[in-house]
Each structure stands twice: as C-alpha cells, then as structure tokens.
Amino acid sequence: MATPSSKKTLMTLYSSDDCVFAHRVRFVLEEKAMEYQIIEVDLAHKPEELAELNSYNQVPTLLDRDLAIHESVLIMEYLDERFPHPPLIPVDPISRAKVRLGLLRFDQDWFAPLFQPGFSPEQIKTAKEQIRSTMAGLSTIFTQQRFLFGDDLSILDCAIAPLLWRLPILDISLPAAAKATQEYMDRLFQMESFKRSLTPAEKAMR
C-alpha cells in the first residue's frame, strides 16, 4: 500500500544540507539534469515519513514513485541505470567491477571513518593520511586523463567530489607537487552540475 509520501509526483530526495552522502546524490541528479524536489531533513527532528520509507531512518533516501531507496551508492547506481544519459558507469563487466571496487574502497577506507560514528581518533587520522597520499599519488594519472576513470565523468568522480570539497574543513591539504590533482578537483568544482548540487551550508565550506 502506498504511503502518503510515495504519492509524490516528482522524484523526491530526503537530504540534509551538510550530509556528504546526500551531496553525492545531488551531484548525480544535477549531472543527469533531473527534475526533482528536495526535502531538507533536520537530523535532530526527523519527519515520521522518513522512517516509513527507510527503516534505518537516514538520509539520503530517494523516493521515485513507489520505490524508496537508501544508501548513496545504491541511489547513484539506480539513477544511472534508470536515466542512462550521460552514462556514469562503464558498460563492460570488467570496467564496472573496477568502478564498484573503487566505490567500496572510498566508503570503507575514507567515508566511514570520517563521516560515520564509532571510529577512533587513530582510525580517523589514518584515513586522512591515506586520502592525502592517494590523491597526491594520482597526480601522475591526472596529467594523462581528465577524470578518475578516463576522460569522461564517472560515478567514481561523483562519489569522491563531495569529500574533496570538504578537505579544508577536514584539515587535509595536498602537497604542492600534486598540481594535477588540484587541477582535477578544480575541474570537478567548476562543473555547473556540481555548483548546482551545493547547499548554502556546503558553499560556506570553502
């Protein structure tokens, strides 16, 4: 039986203005040029309908007609399959597997320690050091290609861009030698779809 929330005619994203995971989804929605509405969720006073749609009572949650999806990676993959232009995930199985492994690493090694509870200061420090060293090491690759998986934007870029935007507030700086990585970040941040994905709270982060 459809809940009152599931009768919304526009695709609806339950979001929070500074949630890094919701930011990922907003970036993909804007890159796909989708018409959608946002319901801003006060995480201290969540609406009852969110728990009805998502038993974990978390953002982001996407409502598309009678389908409610949570977890940012699942939402991004769903959007790319439902609205395949422009494509963000490769077609061939090997490349798709590589992209998904990259997403898994981002979430387990970086996003979880930095943005989810239950991690020690040492684990957080390790995650920050890994981000700094990995992104600096990718500078060589960015001298040869525009994005993480070639010259076209992919779901990997959409997934990591919100974290890279937050590097200043995370107190993570890249070495001066990582010029190509900084240019990659600037390339992401100058995309109109990324600019549109920013909330006022996120704009204030830089």
From TrEMBL:
Which InterPro entries does UniProt cross-reference here?
Glutathione-S-Trfase_C-like, Glutathione-S-Trfase_C_sf, Glutathione_S-Trfase, Glutathione_S-Trfase_N, GST_Omega/HSP26, SspA_N, Thioredoxin-like_sf
Q: Which GO terms describe its cellular component?
A: cytoplasm
Domain GST C-terminal span(s) in chain numbering: 92-206
Domain GST N-terminal: start-end pairs: 9-87
Name of the featured protein: Stringent starvation protein A
Give the originating organism: Acidithiobacillus thiooxidans
